[in-house]
Design a protein that fits this description.
Elements lengths: L7 E8 L8 E8 L2 E6 L9 E4 L4 E4 L1 E3 L7 H4 L4 H4 L3 E6 L11 H12 L3 H11 L5 H10 L5 E4 L1 E2 H9 L1 H4 L8 H16 L4 E3 L25 H14 L2 E4 L8 H9 L9 E7 L8 H15 L3 E6 L4 E6 L10 H8 L3 H9 L1 H12 L15 E4 L10 H8 L3 H12 L4 E7 L3 H8 L4 E3 L16 H14 L7 H8 L1 H7 L14 E4 L11 E5 L6 E5 L5 E6 L2 E5 L2 E2 L24 E3 L9 E3 L3
Parallel strand pairs: 1-4, 1-5, 6-7, 7-8, 9-10, 10-11, 11-12, 12-13, 13-17
Antiparallel strand pairs: 1-2, 2-3, 5-18, 14-16, 15-16, 18-21, 19-20, 21-22, 22-23, 24-25
Helix pairs in contact: 3-4, 6-8, 8-9, 13-16, 15-16, 18-19
Length: 607
């Protein structure tokens, strides 16, 4: 007879399995870190912790498959800002930046400028704690580290190049690795896949720049890789059934075609799982997602490709303190000022009339590659020592002062520096744009950037905002998709595509669960505030969602409940762990028989 004891019971909830099946009223019994029962009848509660989920959604813990938590999880492994939003699995090593192979200073220089996390915090942290120099060493570190959520990872192509070629050679334009160096790269990649990495993350967009004083302002090393090198590494990924994550060159956009071709399964060749960042409706190019989505879907069908776009299912809004924002890396004048570390040197440059002419020329250029709309009239000041500025755009200020908006902007940056905070929306302005993006078969809802851009904005709660959007639109008679499909897109679809053991709520599965209060999915989700990063002398801009998540359960343990974190979260290695790719339990949906007495028989049925 099956045991009737449960460690945790979630009763009376509307349970979604993460496989796009409609929700059902069920009681969930958890024992020894796994889901032990899904019952229509109440379960015996003696000795169990009980969560009453009446009127709430019980679903698999959500997956955040594009983060830059690489440094933070070393210092603050609880990753509370994700756990509080119902996330139970995060992916690190995105955008060619991992911290597996290279020396601490190299890893820091790859990471800090691109992701807008201070170098003076990251470099000492890595020097103190980074004892590994291999993928397996990294996995061993994670497995004994007191993680909050589960962690899966990519090997970064920039990390791989620096380890093989050295930092200076890795950013030498036109340099092609020798045959022996390619063989060394392949060996490191094979070792990473053996250790359970999901694949290789790349970067071909030249706007992301190195920090430090050795090769400062060079693009990330992956951006210098010839396509022959990428093709060589793709062979290993294709053979092993692993993922290539990258970003196209936004200057030309043309190499997105090469990534599509690389993904294709010609004749007997296996498709290569390929995902690029990001599908987004930016100002002036609002129709692009529809066109790109259509072409991607046709290409996948006709050429047996497995090509996806990582997408954000909400508005892409950012804040900037002064001029410290990655969008200014898009053009030469912005790159020139961000190259300078010293504030006095920056201010001197920004006062220079010739520099201002150059900045204005870049700003007014209406053709060519861009992500930022370059409209200072669509940029609102939200904080400044001069309180009269708050609520005004830079164009408003320019009109008041009788000058060009670029001059007004640069004057205010010189005057107030990082105390000048302003806000703009980069993309996904309208609900209809988001609706079209999330319904594209070639999109994955996997672009939060959590852990990065701490003064600008990552999207820690985009999953909750997406669930609110789906619910609100349905209530207004404009359905986006069924709720069960929306939950699948945040859980099971991602787990299946990236091939990790997560994202499903069924008997025998690891008990990673989110309990969501739909009444808490309110306007607060769109609000912002500052919060301290645990164990680091840093604050970051975060989302608010104090009433949306009733509980987050990781490995069968309550990590977060009713606004409170478990005392042992981030201290004891009893919650998350490293999730290797390829170890996914592929059993089908589970059917739970009605409970009878204290025994709860479970029947596992193949789909």
């Amino acid at each position: 007879m099956q045991e009737s004891r449960y460690d945790l019971i979630i009763r009376n909830g509307l349970v979604f399995d993460g496989m796009a099946n409609p929700g059902q009223r069920r009681h969930v019994g958890i024992r020894d870190g796994k889901v032990a029962a899904l019952s229509e009848l109440p379960l015996p509660e003696e000795g169990a912790e009980v969560i009453d989920a009446q009127g709430q959604w019980v679903m698999p813990g959500m997956l955040d498959m594009h983060t830059h938590y690489d440094a933070e999880l070393v210092a603050a492994p609880a990753l509370r800002e994700s756990v509080k939003h119902g996330v139970t699995t995060v992916a690190v090593g995105s955008c060619s930046i991992s911290m597996m192979l290279s020396e601490p200073e190299d890893c820091s220089d790859l990471f800090t400028r691109v992701e807008s996390v201070p170098r003076d915090q990251v470099l000492p942290l890595l020097k103190k704690h980074k004892t590994w120099d291999s993928p397996q060493g990294y996995v061993d570190f994670l497995r004994q580290h007191p993680l909050g959520p589960n962690v899966c990872a990519f090997l970064g192509h920039s990390d791989l190049r620096v380890r093989t070629l050295g930092l200076s050679r890795s950013v030498r334009r036109g340099l092609k690795p020798t045959r022996d160096e390619l063989a060394t790269m392949t060996q490191h990649l094979e070792s990473a896949l053996d250790a359970g990495m999901m694949g290789l993350s790349g970067m071909t967009n030249p706007w992301d720049k190195l920090d430090g004083d050795r090769e400062r302002s060079a693009s990330l090393p992956a951006a210098y890789a010839p396509w022959s090198e990428i093709r060589h590494l793709n062979r290993t990924l294709r053979h092993r059934g692993r993922v290539l994550q990258s970003a196209p060159n936004l200057v030309t956009k043309l190499n997105a075609i090469l990534f599509g071709i690389a993904s294709a399964g010609w004749f007997v060749r296996k498709p290569l799982k390929t995902t690029l960042i990001t599908m987004m409706a930016v100002k002036g190019q609002e129709a692009l997602p529809k066109l790109v989505g259509f072409l991607s879907n046709v290409f996948n069908r006709l050429f047996r490709a497995d090509f996806r776009w990582e997408s954000l299912p909400t508005q892409f809004e950012v804040f900037s303190d002064g001029i410290d924002l990655v969008i200014f890396e898009e053009f030469g004048a912005g790159e020139a000022v961000l190259h300078l570390v010293d504030e006095l040197e920056r201010n001197e440059l920004m006062r220079d009339p010739e520099y201002r002419k150059r900045f204005r020329k870049d700003y007014e250029k209406r053709f060519g590659a861009r992500v930022w709309h370059r409209d200072l009239g669509d940029a609102t000041i939200v904080d400044a020592p001069d309180r009269s500025l708050i609520g005004k755009s830079f164009v408003d200020v320019a009109r008041e002062r009788g000058m060009h908006e670029v001059d007004a902007f640069l004057d205010l940056v010189v005057e107030h520096g990082q105390k000048l905070r302003w806000h703009t929306v980069i993309g996904n302005y309208e609900p209809q744009q988001i609706r079209e993006i999330v319904n594209q078969p070639s999109t994955l809802l996997a672009f939060n950037d959590s852990g990065a851009h701490i003064r600008n904005m990552a999207f820690y709660n985009s999953q909750l905002r997406f669930l609110k959007f789906v619910r609100d639109e349905a209530e207004a008679g404009r359905p986006v998709m069924p709720l069960e499909k929306a939950i699948w897109k945040l859980t099971g679809e991602l787990a299946d595509w990236f091939d990790i053991d997560a994202g499903r709520l069924r008997v025998g599965a690891r008990a990673d669960v989110a309990v969501i209060n739909p009444e808490g999915l309110g306007e607060q989700l769109a609000e912002f505030g500052e919060a301290k990063i645990e164990n680091l002398d840093l604050k970051r801009l975060v989302n608010r969602s104090d009433h949306a998540v009733t509980a987050t359960i990781i490995n069968g343990r309550v990590a977060f409940r009713q606004g409170q974190f478990a005392p042992e979260l981030g201290k004891d290695a009893v919650f998350g762990t490293f999730l290797p790719a390829g170890a996914r339990d592929v059993a089908g949906p589970t059917v739970q028989a009605r409970a009878s007495g204290t025994a709860m028989p479970t029947i596992a049925a193949s789909a």
